[in-house]
Specification:
- It is a single chain.
- This protein has 416 residues and is α/β, with parallel strands linked by helices.
- It has 3 domains: 168 residues, 3-Layer(aba) Sandwich (Molybdenum Cofactor Biosythetic Enzyme, Chain A); 77 residues, Alpha-Beta Plaits, CATH 3.30.70; 155 residues, Maf protein (Alpha-Beta Complex).
- Helices cover 39% and strands 25% of the residues.
- Helix 2 packs parallel to helix 6, helix 3 crosses helix 4 and helix 9 packs parallel to helix 14.
- The longest helix is centred in the C-terminal third of the chain and has 21 residues.
Length: 416
């Protein structure tokens, strides 16, 4: 069974809102054993909408529409579906009665515009929407299925996770498609591919690499009669990938790099403080977003100005003033990490300094030059990185590099 998503709304085309509904549905479809091959976004135009639906019906078994079910004149999804399926909309007295009761219970006036929400196709039946006024529609005709759902996420998501899941669970299907995402840091995409090259030709499971900002993701997917069977197929395959990539795999599915670091610190019963320049507190924000981080993360200093690096972290002012060294340097990064560790009395200190652009700094240090350092109980390590991209990308990558270096130190005890 194949599916296509048609998102409706000019605001989506103009980028005024993000289409998180289609993202959620795209994640649900494999769990239902439905292959998702196409996705369209169309504005509030009846002609273009009906053509988009006809195209979707010509190549997919199931078509989902998102949005355009409200009471206003630009809510055209019902009309578009009626044109695409060649049926005339009819009023549904039961829907009208339910809507009138909802409006009365909420002391809202009933307007003629609400009649649009009572219309449906003869081949359809309503899908209950307990969180809004617009019911969904489930249309079945000539072996095709069209499911129309409202746009507000608070209405859409419960309907997908409730009645829509139930509908497909009761239909015969081809099994389920189940995936895991392996998250990788510290090595590039080409190196990842080189190490797992023999596994890329597998048909079940399959593995697909994706380059993300500061890390690599591997989506490993298996098809089985149910989730348990798919998981049994995935388990040995994932183990092979872990063996090939080693400690570069820092997490699975929703595990972020900051959570991986916090988990290790908790396991070791050790503490961390951070000294941030280029990231401006971004690393501290990421770490404190992890539940339970207060057990291991003591705090951070944002020493953006050079003079604060000296006064708050004990960095040698002569190094900061030296035109050959300056604030963006290996030496300063190491002193920042040691200084914040001493200042907060923690087991580890992490520092981040660099130039995020858009121009070279006063000392001529180029855009994208980064230094991250970790001071631990036995040593201080520092790494230099060169990053490209816009300012915010460089700042985020600096945080990734710093957390990855910290994780590496936490996992590799120093042997003197």
């Amino acid at each position: 069974m194949t599916a296509e998503i048609v998102s409706v709304g000019t605001e989506l085309l103009m980028g005024q809102i993000a289409d998180t509904n289609a993202q959620h549905l795209g994640q649900v479809l494999p769990e239902l054993g439905i292959r998702h091959h196409f996705r369209q976004t169309v504005g509030d135009n009846l002609e273009r909408l009906s053509e988009a639906l006809k195209l979707a019906l010509s190549r997919s078994d199931v078509v989902f529409t998102i949005g355009g079910l409200g009471p206003t004149q630009d809510d055209l999804t019902r009309d578009g579906i009626s044109r695409a399926l060649g049926e005339t909309l009819i009023p549904d007295p039961e829907i009208a009665d339910q809507l009138r009761k909802q409006f009365a219970a909420r002391n809202l006036p009933w307007t003629e515009a609400q009649h649009r929400q009572t219309m449906r196709l003869p081949c359809s039946r309503p899908i209950e929407n307990p969180n809004g006024t617009a019911p969904g529609l489930l249309c079945e005709k000539d072996g095709k299925v069209v499911i129309a759902l409202p746009g507000p996420p608070g209405e859409f998501v419960p309907m997908i996770d409730g009645p829509v899941r139930t509908y497909f669970a009761n239909k015969a299907h081809e099994g389920v498609i189940h995936s895991h995402i392996l998250r990788i840091c510290g090595i590039g995409e080409s190196m990842v591919e080189q190490r797992i090259r023999p596994l890329l030709d597998s048909e079940n499971p399959t593995v697909a690499p994706y380059a993300k900002l500061g890390e690599i993701h591997l989506r490993v997917t298996a098809r089985g009669s149910d989730t348990a069977e798919a998981e049994r197929i995935l388990e040995p395959f994932v183990s092979q990938i872990r063996e090939a990539l080693g400690d570069a795999v820092f997490g699975v599915d929703e595990t972020t790099l900051e959570k991986a670091v916090v988990d290790i610190l908790k396991a070791k019963k050790q503490t961390l403080a951070a000294a941030e320049s280029i990231t401006g507190g971004g690393v501290a924000e990421r770490i404190t977003s992890v539940p339970g981080a207060s057990e291991v993360f003591v705090g951070a200093l944002v020493t953006y100005a050079a003079r604060l690096k000296a006064s708050e972290l004990g960095v040698d002012p002569d190094l900061l003033d030296d035109p050959e060294i300056g604030p963006i340097s290996e030496e300063v990064a190491k002193m920042m990490a040691s200084g914040v560790r001493k200042r907060f009395g923690t087991d580890y200190g992490l520092s981040l300094t660099g130039n995020a652009g858009p121009t070279a700094d006063a000392g001529g240090k180029p855009v994208g030059l980064l230094y991250v350092a970790v001071a631990g109980p036995d040593r201080v390590v520092v790494e230099e990185f060169r990053s490209r991209g816009i300012r915010e990308d460089i700042r985020f990558r600096a945080g990734q590099f710093g957390l990855a270096l910290l994780r590496k130190e936490l996992m590799s005890p120093y042997i003197g």
